Request: fold
Amino acid sequence: MAYVIAAPCVDHMDRACLEVCPVDAIATEGGVDRKMFIDPDGCIGCGACEAACPNQAIFESGQLPAQWADFAWTDMAWYRDVAAARSVVDRLVPQVAVR
Amino acid sequence: MTLVGSPPIVKPGLPAVAPRRRPVQGANAALVARERLGADMAIFRFRPDDGPERFVAGQYAAITMVDPSASRPYSMASRPGAPDLDFVISRIGGGALTPRLFALRDGDRVHIGRPRGRFRLDDGDQRDHLLIGTGSGIAPLLSMVAALGSRPAPPRTFVFHGARVREELAGQDMLTLADGGWLSYRPTLSRTPASDAWVGGRGHVGAQLAALIASGELAANRTVAYLCGGSAMVDDCRRRLAAFGLPPGAIRSEGFSTT
Reply:
């Protein structure tokens, strides 16, 4: 079962998951994306990312808290339509304006 | 996050694009070799149709046969990235799958599911590694040894393998060859007759573990342990390691029942 990166990652990208993923199934575009994304086609479900995440943002898809269920879609979508994925992330966690 | 009372987020349809790589979804595979380990145990070697499967040492996958469909999970015993997948399998009398697996001939086909499981070797962990397995529970530990051995500087590693008789010591050739230097291989037999000229350990692995702890060779704060086998062995070794001072996160296990 693939893992999913949920709301606690948004704007807090630690990247520890990127370092430990043994199959290179996690990606993001630096300076553009607000979170990391797990490729559900590539994830082998080992849980290394979940253990490494200091923000406790990563869950097995079956264990994803209900309020963050849409993040399963954004992770999958990022690998197919990156603009759509970013748009939904922004609506799930609106950006806070900085003055 | 969705606020109470707020409208649901509308997610657009996605284009049907080819995945950026071959999805991890398992593969059909052919039996290419089998090494018998006594009457009721063997190492099965399967070659996936589409090349090496991605997995982490310690994980398992379901082997499935059809007509009638039967499926059971088994740990990979081979090195991640190797062209073939090895499994150590015990024949269960009256079982739905294992008698059929033992009847396979070279070239016969099965399906191997996507890798699963959180019992995994952590890349780059340089603590001393303590690998303890009984019976076919040595399988994921063999994969770990192969993965550790491929590192430029493998950590100091102790492998305890408990089996009933010497024929069931899966992987003993590879482990004996690697013994010395970074790896210490300590097989132990529980049912070999006293008249057997066996020079390895006798009895249960728990006693072997106790002897290693008593020797002072290990430091609790620099050791990680991986346990795989019957639940009684796993529980016993877990208790011994906890008493020695290993924190819970440094004791990783996968237990199984043979019933």
In short: Helices of chain A lie at 16-20, 48-52, 70-78, 82-92. The longest helix of chain A spans residues 82-92.
